[in-house]
User: Fold this.
Amino acid sequence: MSKTVLGISAFYHDSAAAIVRDGEIVAAAQEERFTRRKHDPRFPKNAINYCLEEAFIEPSELDTIVFYDHPLLTWDRVLKSCISIGERSKEQFTKACASVLGIKIWVQDLVRESLGSLGKLDKLLVTEHHMAHAASAFYPSPFESAAILTLDGVGEWATTTVGMGEGREIQLLQEIDYPHSLGLFYSAFTYYCGFKVNSGEYKLMGLAPYGEPTYYDLIRKNLIDVKTDGSYRLNTEYFGYLHSLRMTNERFETLFGGPPRNSESRITLREINLAASVQKVTEEVVVLLVRHARKKTGCDKLVMAGGVALNCVANGKICRENIFDDIWIQPAAGDAGGALGAALLVSHNYFGIPRCVRDDGRDSQKGSYLGPRFQPQEISAFLERNSYPYERVISLENRTRIIAQAIAEGKIVGFFSGRMEFGPRALGARSILGDPRRKETQSVMNLKIKHRESFRPFAPSVLLEDCSEYFELDSESPYMLIVAPVREERRLPTDLRQALRNGVDILNVVNEPRSDLPAVTHVDYSARIQTVNPYDHPDYYRVIRAFKDISGYGVVVNTSFNVRGEPIVCSPSDAYRCFMRTEMDLLVLEDCLVWKRMQPESHHDSTWQTEFELD
Amino acid sequence: MTRQILEYHPVIGYRFIPNLKARIPHEGGGYLIQTNSSGFRCCHEFKTDPTPFMKRVLLFGDSYTAGDGVSNGQRYGDKIEALANAEVYNFGLPGTAPDQHYLAFMEYASKIRADLTIITVLVENIRRIAARYRPYQNEQGNTVLFSKPYFTLINGSLELHGVPVGREPIKEADLPEQSREFVDTGGRFASLRKIMNRVGLKDLTQRALHYQPLPEYDDPQNSYWLLMRAILEKFIAAVPKPVVVMPLPLYQHVEGTADPSGYQSRFSELADSNPCLVHDPLPSLLKYSPTERRSFRFAQDIHPTPAGHVAIAASLAPVVMDLLGMKKVT
Assistant:
């Protein structure tokens, strides 16, 4: 009997839905893409609508619906934590009450009200948060058995788990509980350095290579006690999140020499070195945990999920340490992936659907292209309905050549092709592409497209077969989750760190070329790599291939298709709006090419600054 | 994100985007739509030759027939298909009227061999046939107008205008004053209706004022009716026989707040002088309790709910089965 399961994650950040049929992932999407509100935590009614559309079933035909988090266990944690802290936790308690008692425990009613049905089982199932993460990492992986490591801010109680998956069984063997959390530890520094918690962690990671880990000893001595097996305890006296809505407290500020950085103020050497220090500590803990997972499980493969697994610098380090023979990381490693994990867990564990590992060694995540697709006819109908000038190039060969030529001429191309990505990274379905050889690509993309000044370089999408020509990486990185060095012979000598020590603004040095791929090479000669194979997204592969034919380089710059503060575009309408808000030259909407020079002046739009909350 | 589901058509004005599968968010929870390669919300591909051992019905209508608010399988056309074991070719198109239905027949169905044709006329569409423009909200959130094909009746003969239909949207402000009366604004008193809808008092006000939505049917010589009658006569003459014309009542008629006698008389006259059978589903709908009748439309959206479609199908099925020579299912 066929079994179709809908998984839902919501009410923390980045809510999502996923549908799994007989163990196969049919669809998954984040709510933010539909509501256009970044990290939207609300009930994912639009994402659910999409998943039902893709599976083409009525809610009543679902075998069951599962929520990724156990509301009563979360409540248990909130209550016990607040009691242990006493009156000081009033602020935190009030907020947690609103979240847990206000919404989470009524989730079954909410689902029934929204969908009109709870499926054939007529009740909502719940999983535990880290079990959902573990399932999202293990089941789609290409491994028959594997060690599992999950790391995030907090679930119900757990913040870190080590487990093992075999066949369709998952066991969590050990866990570290709240308030000791590597995710919250990293987020505390994110907050302190003036970035937004739950989204700015990525910036902190990008800032780290500019600095020296001068605060490493201070952090290790005062904030975190790490054992040889990777288990750790935080010194909660320094953190504000237990009893307030701030991540750090006065003691933390005293330790690091002053109040948190204001988000709009200049980044100083303090933040740069703090970023480097916390990154070093995090990598150290993660590597120890990974070693422990190997020892504990005896497995030679590792899978990972949870928000900390998005730290691609740490991931790169794990790869280079060769602790495991192979590693697979869930691309939607954050809470969004919990929806997928929960649905997979129920499919295999509750309904007993056998898990089929692919014979060809590939994973079952389908390139993470699990979101909506728009047919060419839908796109042309949209363009015509709005009288937007375009040309339709049905020949794939011709179209690919035009796109590649535009990139090679230094044009910036919005590339909208196939099913939208699930997870935070644009992987060539909703991407902005540019020429990595050009020195000016980075600043043009930052200032004219993203509307920001950034110290982070863009990511390269490289043909899988050419990866080792450019980067010191000998494995696949299809989900842009691994950072690896640019090959030594491609590097250019720089002394940017010295310049920073001399007080030069970080933004003045960021655009200095550091290799023959200046737009994608970070200050430490690293790059956040996406390897592109011919199978997952053939059209994207062809574009890079055609670019190589013209330029000799099998690499393009790939950044997410959005402006600052905006979720990645989902529909042709989102894409056109973003295109007109930026200085992109060409918008590719499947087989329709929309050139900026052909668009009426009246459609130019600068309202993005008021529409999206800047991150 | 709501998918765009309609695309330009040079003769009809628009049609569904072909081969589409979508789920449309809706107050009823959302509904699944599937279109065929001809751009109609029909699960069958249109074939000209008969399907062996299967009766075929051509079904025309607007959003009530296309099934706004419900999934394909929940529509009265699909229910009839199941009850009568026939294939129903659904040509329903939201926002259209018999003028465009006739054009859809000429474009897509004139060569199709069928055993029965059902022409469903939402009675309110007596106004829509006179419209020449339909409003639409564009990407910038502004209301723009799109042209539609339309007929005029001059000295007793119908003349088609506006084909090919213009592709370009027209700004409301650019429309000449004398053309503004030809914008399809739905029912009567559009502005007042909007306000009453916003404050949630529409139903109450209509009841209190004994609102009669369709005075156009009161007089057999009314120009709107004469146009409707001429279009239907042309349509009836063109389609495969036998023909059922089904005037679909508004919810005010179903819920007993408006007088249906005007439209009932006009359609009865149409049946008297044309080779068609008029099936009025209102008498059978009125047999349900007031609570049940209210459940035939959504809380906000006036389109039929799944229960509404079942009720329409229950009324229509015996007629269809009689005409197809099939045994009635009790």
Summary: The radius of gyration of chain A is 23 Å. Chain A touches chain B through 33 residues (CB under 8 Å).
